[in-house]
Design brief:
It comes from Pedobacter polaris. This protein starts with a helix and ends in a 9-residue tail after the last helix. The protein is elongated, with a radius of gyration of 26 Å. α3 runs parallel beside α8 and α16 packs across α18. It is mainly α and 383 residues long. It has three domains: 239 residues; 63 residues, no CATH class; 61 residues, no CATH class. The protein is 64% helix and 0% strand.
């Protein structure tokens, strides 16, 4: 019954994603992944219930599916975090394709012959099944590690493009990836029942957060049809997004095409300071590098170079330091004694207590409360 519930939930969540308005590219990956998971659960249920004797039509098709889950996880995270790879995405599915090709001999058998093979633990195909199953667990664990590496890079990258991280740090995907790792460990231990219970929980988790997750980067919202999941369409999609801000870890590579002279750096930096002093854009809690660059009439890559070179910090730290300075100027004013620390922090541009306390301590070495005590500032509630 639990597996039937998992199948229904998978299909329901996939349907929600297929019909979701303003779908992101990641949704076009998650929806077929959930559909595949539903089929995997269905095939497993047919096997454990011995229903395959009356319904042998799916026999053999479930065997290579575990080789597909790892690539789907990796590609889903790569898309959400905008860490595109120039290699065609379909390369990740080559092992599964090879496995299906190796099973062609089995697929050509009659239904009655397939049933006999399954009833006798794969008789006649033992060596072939061993070859196919051998890379399944290593492949799954490798993709778990690769996915965690992507998420680690993402945490570093968003600090260079956004002034907030709370809604876009994708912590839920870290837990999801660890959950995938636990599923693979369960497979190693050979407990099928616990494995598929974990899969059911995995479906609920990824479905709930996946549907809620919006595109983080400006180029991630699309309504192109699902047929885009082909090598040609994916290539076109990447080419269409070449103008979007790419995430590049190497600083030298990042700026080599937009090297600015000292005069240009000084000029853009001056414009930036005047804009911040005049309009206090840092008070927008969701200010991004891309939005600020548009206001200055420069590329986001150029602005990032200016901030890194002239301020000696990334965009996230630059904006939050301005917010802290604004907080300090505001909190000392006598007319603001009736306000709380948090309300003044929100007015300065912070969007959470955690972010405010973390960044304030990082910049000053003091907690906000300790700072107020040091400056002999009395507020209504120093929390």
């Amino acid at each position: 019954m639990l597996h039937i519930a998992g199948i229904i939930i998978s299909l329901f969540l996939a349907l929600l994603l297929f019909t979701k308005k303003g779908k992101s590219t990641a949704d076009f990956i998650l929806a077929p992944w959930l559909t595949l998971t539903a089929f995997h659960l269905l095939a497993y249920y047919i096997l454990i219930s011995d229903f395959f004797i009356e319904f042998p039509y799916f026999l053999g098709f479930e065997i290579p599916i575990p080789l597909i889950h790892g690539p789907f996880l990796y590609l889903y995270i790569a898309t959400l975090t905008n860490q595109r790879n120039r290699l065609p995405w379909l390369i990740h599915f080559i092992p599964a394709v090879v496995a299906y090709l190796l099973l062609l001999g089995f697929y050509t058998l009659s239904f009655s012959q397939k049933i006999i093979v399954y009833q006798n633990n794969g008789i006649g195909f033992e060596s072939l099944l061993s070859i196919i199953r051998f890379p399944i667990v290593p492949s799954g664990l490798i993709y778990v590690v690769l996915s965690l590496i992507l998420l680690k890079k993402h945490r570093k990258n968003i600090s260079g493009q956004f002034s907030y991280v709370e809604k876009i740090n994708l912590n839920w995907l870290v837990y999801l990836t660890i959950g995938m790792g636990i599923i693979w460990l369960s497979i190693i231990l050979g407990n099928d029942i616990s494995t598929f219970i974990l899969v059911d929980l995995f479906i609920l988790f990824i479905g709930y957060f996946g549907i809620k997750q919006v595109g983080i980067f400006a180029n991630q919202i699309t309504d192109e049809p699902l047929v885009a999941i082909t090598s040609g369409a994916l290539k076109n999609h990447e080419e269409a997004n070449d103008s979007s801000p790419l995430i590049i870890s190497n600083e030298k590579t990042k700026y080599e095409k937009t090297a600015l002279g000292d005069e240009q750096l000084l000029n853009i930096h001056l414009q930036l300071k005047l804009l911040m002093q005049g309009e206090k854009l840092y008070k927008d809690p969701e200010l991004s590098l891309d939005e600020l660059a548009k206001r200055l009439g420069v590329s986001s890559n150029t602005l990032s170079q200016v901030i890194n070179s002239m301020e000696g910090r990334n965009f996230y730290d630059y904006i939050n330091n301005l917010r802290i300075a604004e907080f300090k100027q505001t909190v000392i004013l006598p007319e603001n004694k009736r306000f709380t620390l948090l309300s003044i922090a929100f007015e300065a541009g912070f969007n959470s207590k955690t972010s405010f306390h973390r960044n304030f301590k990082k910049a000053t070495g003091l907690s906000p409360k300790a700072f107020c005590q040091q400056e002999k500032i009395q507020l209504g509630n120093q929390s």
